[in-house]
Amino acid sequence: MGESDNVALVRRYVQFIGGSTGSGIEDVLTEDFFDHVSGQRGSAIWAQVAQWAKATFADPVVDVHEIMSRGDRVLVWMTVTATHVGSGFPRLRGIAVTGKRVAWPQVHIFRCSGGLLAEHWAVRDDYAMVEAIVGGGPLAAPPHAD
Q: Which residue among 68, 112, 115, 141 sits deepest, i.e. has the most Cβ atoms within 10 Å of its Cβ?
């Protein structure tokens, strides 16, 4: 599999995140896929993430800033913007629905093997996403001492 084929796999992931694909992400995962973010193996974590996302956000739009590949690794830097409609994500439990459009910057790295995604790492700015929802609420930085 070439680098362009691996990039196509990651584009399928981006479509899954944006809700624009009818098929589930499990179609492009190896049987022993490992998600380094959750520490889980298999596709079940993605079903859980999809459930949290549907319960939390509506009308997601994915803005891909860059996709880079080298060998069997593909990096995607993107921002997901969506409307806050619930509190399905664990970090949002107990936070009232605001209806705000919020941006969620993130970087994902995948290792590809045999024409499928085999491993996943991510750096997401969850703090920025939660702060966008609560505004100057409990997650606001403390005032600077003069």
A: 112
